[in-house]
Structure formats: structure tokens, C-alpha cells
Amino acid sequence: MPHDKLIAGNWKMNGDIKLIEEFVKKFPNIKSFQNIEVLICPSFPYLGQAFEAFKRLGIKVGAQDCHYKTNGAYTGDVSSKMIRDLGASYIIIGHSERRDNYQSEDSHIFEKVKRAIDENLTPIICVGENLAERQNNDTEAVLKNQLKIFLKNDLKEVDFVVAYEPKWAIGSGQVASLPEISKTHSLIREIISQAFNMEIERSSRIIYGGSVKPDNSEKILKLEEVDGVLIGGASLDPQDFFSIVKEFKKV
Ligand code: PEP
């Protein structure tokens, strides 16, 4: 069965109680919007508060990461169960900023996906090439390699999202061209379909991330291959974020 489109905001290490309050004041109630899921992923400390505040608006909350173990002596870390307890329904996993900043990220990604699934949280698995890889025409190989771990393992009954986020487009103001987005999303769908049956292949969502803003979102959202967007900077402004949600409603 086809899923709702997903519009997800990643606040990264930004935002605070004041921003949550600003959203409550300025972001319209979208509970009546059909076929759209709207999600905000604040930092861990604000998850519970954001969940309580945003549920009245019809916005879900998610985390930006989780630990790869269920519990234990991991000072400063946060488990998927803790995230679930605070009302989250999604976890972003393998964001390029985490892959770059934490050497162990790549080797722990599949475990993190499993921890999310253990708690009935939908993983948003981030993939994407860097600039040098793009210039060397290595995008396909990079994506296959990043997705290999999930395809080797049994995710058949699982609802998951793949976020295609070319690294050079994140926070840079540069957006992948529309033909590039279509082509890469089709490629990702093909990689997934080779591993899973058609039903699973159709029901998994592939979303685009990388400098999505109100002025470029409409064209991206109209692409047949795009099941949603992951938004960094523009999700920190309730008006900008709502403009993008409105585009989706039109599409
Ligand atoms: C992101 O961090 O996932 C992202 C896409 O950021 P931005 O929209 O700011 O490029």
C-alpha cells in the first residue's frame, strides 16, 4: 500500500524551548491534511516537550540518532527505547554529519536500524555521495555500497525510509538538479527492488535532502520518484517549513 509523503525537518544541534513555542504559535494545525506526514527531529533533550507541543498541530517527532546497543554502560548515549518513551516515531540514521564526525558510524548503522525497529520506530537511512565521488561518477557505486548492509540483512517486513542526501548539497545552498534527483531515486529504488519483493519495494519511501527551501521545493516535490524531503536549515523557521508543507499539499 502506498505510504503518505514524508516532510521531515532535522533541527541538528539547533533549536530550543523558544523555537518549540514559536512553532506552536506560527505553524498552522495540519491535522486535516491528507496523505502527508510531517515530522520534526529536534535534539534529544527537547524530544518529549516537542512531542507534547507538536501533537496538537499534527506534527510527529523523531530523533537524529540512537545508540547501536539496547542499554548498558554507554555514558552520554541515548537508546531507541528512551527515544520511543519520549513519543518519537522516527529515527534518522547515518546522517552524513554523523558519518563524518564519528568514525564508528558506518560500522554501527545496521545495528542502529535494528534498534529502531525493535522499538517500532521507522528508520530514515541517509545515503549520498560526496563531491569528489560525484565528480568521479562514483555515485552509483557509493549508494550500492551504503545500501548493501540493509539488503544483505532481512528488512522485509519493515517500514523504512531512505533519504538521498548528496553531501555536497547539505547546507550548501546547492541542490541536485531535477533529472539527477529522479535518476538517483530510481537507482535507489532499483537497488531496493533487487533485494525485496515488489510490494516492499513500492512501500518503502525514498526522500530527497540537500538545501530544500520554499523556493525550490515545489519542483522537487512534483517529481514522481520523490516520496518526501528531509530539510535542515529551512525547518528551523515555522513559516518556511509550512510553505514547503503547503507545496506538498498542492502536489
Ligand atoms: C540535512 O541536514 O539533512 C539537510 C538536508 O540540511 P539542509 O536542508 O540545510 O541542506
Description:
With 251 residues, the protein is an alpha/beta fold. The chain has one domain: TIM Barrel (Alpha-Beta Barrel). The chain is 44% helix and 16% strand. It contains eleven helices and eight strands. The protein has an eight-stranded parallel β-barrel, surrounded by five helices. The radius of gyration is 17 Å and the shape is globular. The model has no long low-confidence stretch (mean pLDDT 92). The chain binds phosphoenolpyruvate.
Which features would summarize this protein structure in a list?
251 residues; alpha/beta; binds phosphoenolpyruvate; eight-stranded parallel beta barrel; 11 helices
> Stretches where pLDDT falls below 50 for ≥5 residues?
none
What is the structural class? alpha/beta
User: Secondary-structure element order, as H and E?
Assistant: EHEHEHEHHEHHEHHEHEH
Shape annotation: globular
User: Strand count, sense and closure of the main sheet?
Assistant: 8 strands, parallel, barrel
Distance between the termini: 19 Å
